[in-house]
Each structure stands twice: as structure tokens, then as C-alpha cells.
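Hey team,

Sharing the ABC-2 type transport system ATP-binding protein run so nobody has to redo it. Sequence (254 residues) first:
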Amino acid sequence: MTAGPAIQVRGLEKSYPKLPVLRGVDFEVAPGHIFALLGSNGAGKTTVVKILSTLLKADAGTASVAGFDVAAHPARVRESISLTGQFAAVDEILSGRENLVLIARLRHQKQPGRIAADLLTRFSLTEAADRKVATYSGGMRRRLDIAMSLIGNPPVIFLDEPTTGLDPEARLEVWDAVKSLAARGTTVLLTTQYLEEAEQLADRIAILHQGRIIVNGTLTELKALLPPAEVEYVEKQPSLEDVFFAIVGARESP
Ligand SMILES: Nc1ncnc2c1ncn2[C@@H]1O[C@H](COP(=O)(O)OP(=O)(O)O)[C@@H](O)[C@H]1O
Ligand SMILES: [Mg+2]
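Structure output:
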């Protein structure tokens, strides 16, 4: 990968028939960072991810991933990424280990068995490795899904709403898995509707609202957008949720 940003997006626009979704989206993600694209349902998060993963063409603007322009070099982009969608893509009939070995073979890896064993350890799935995925909990499935997406060591991974539909415990398990990705230098772009998820995981958070990024910063920077915490008996810092509603609310009022 080049020394520049792992992901660079400039002036991205996309409309579906009669529905403008992205109206000029700009952001960058530094290598090895976790970047959260936060937005309500229908904000256009999946549309951004689809453009960045070459599944959809933008109407205007440019985007590059791992140094490759998505429009000019889609094949190079696809070699550099993996994409995990909202619904786990694991095979229920196979065991966790078999799922991993299958994908490793499909991706022409030299030692599929070893890769599977390493990933099972990394994602704490060793005990369940030889059970059918049909018996796994939601969190285990999603962790397996993320593990599968890492085969071949893509430098950039897209996680589109990785914890939607999971219970709180499973969500914590997935958060740990995502943190461990970035700790190894993988660049992660994750989308979420959950403010707390962005707060827990992301180095930088961007809020996509009405087709544009309305705020982009670290959690500390975002919190600084609100007036300082009032000191009463106990100091209460504004949560990201306070910031989100303060900003979105402010934009929507006439
Ligand atoms: N293929 C499509 N055709 C028409 N409208 C679409 C299509 N895909 C998404 N949309 C609409 O575009 C908007 C943004 O969708 P999406 O990017 O999936 O949002 P998010 O992932 O933030 O929930 C939504 O209003 C959605 O209904
Ligand atoms: Mg979506």
C-alpha cells in the first residue's frame, strides 16, 4: 500500500432514480485506523460501502482504496479489500473450521488448514471449531464471518453494520474482534447506526446525514462541538448521542 490514506473519498455523489442519496461526500481514512460512518437507517452508508468495494458506480466524485481508484482499477481494489455485510455469509451445514478452509482454498491460499486454525484461535472459536455453524450464537457467527473476511490478509476491510441484530453480549464479542483487527494494522471502515458502537471502536467518526458528512472528527473533537460539560455536583460529559442530536437537530431546524 502507498503511504497515503488507505481510503480517500472526494465529492462522491450517487442518486437512485428520483432519490439523491449522496450529495458530495468527502472523507479520508488513515492506514490502520478504524473509521466509523455513522448515520440513521437510509442515510446512504451501504451506498458508500458499495461504491468503495466496486459493487456500484458513483455518479460523480472520486474514491480510492489502498491507493487504487475504484473506477479506474476495480480489480486492484477488490484484491485489497474484504466486505462483510449485515447478514453473516457463513454456511450453516459446515463447521466453523470447514467454512474457513473452504474460503482459504477459494482464495488460493497455500496452507488452508493452518490459516483456519490461526483464525479460530484469534477469534476465540477453537472450542466450537468442529461444530456445525447452525449451533453457533449470533456473535459467534459474526465473528466467524469477520474471520473469513480476513483470509488473504486484505489491508482494508469494510464492515457494514457488523452488529445490527445482535444481542448486547454478542455485540461486545464482535467489538473485541474488530479492535483486534486494527491492532494488527488492518484499516477498518465500519458503518453503524449505533452511536455507542462508534464511540467504542472508532479512531474517527463521521456522521452521514442528508447526503453529506456533517461532522468528522475524533470522539474528543466531536464532544468539543458541544458546550463544555456543566459542573454541578458531578461532571457529566456529553455523550456522542448528545452531539449527534445537537448537530442533526440544529441542521434540520429552519
Ligand atoms: N437499489 C436501490 N434503488 C433505489 N433506492 C435505493 C437502492 N438502494 C438503496 N436505496 C435507497 O437509498 C437510500 C440509502 O440507502 P442505503 O445506502 O442502503 O442506506 P443505509 O445503509 O444508510 O441504511 C435509502 O433511502 C434506500 O431506500
Ligand atoms: Mg445499510
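The CA atoms of residues 68 and 247 lie 33 Å apart.

Ping me if you want the raw files.
A.
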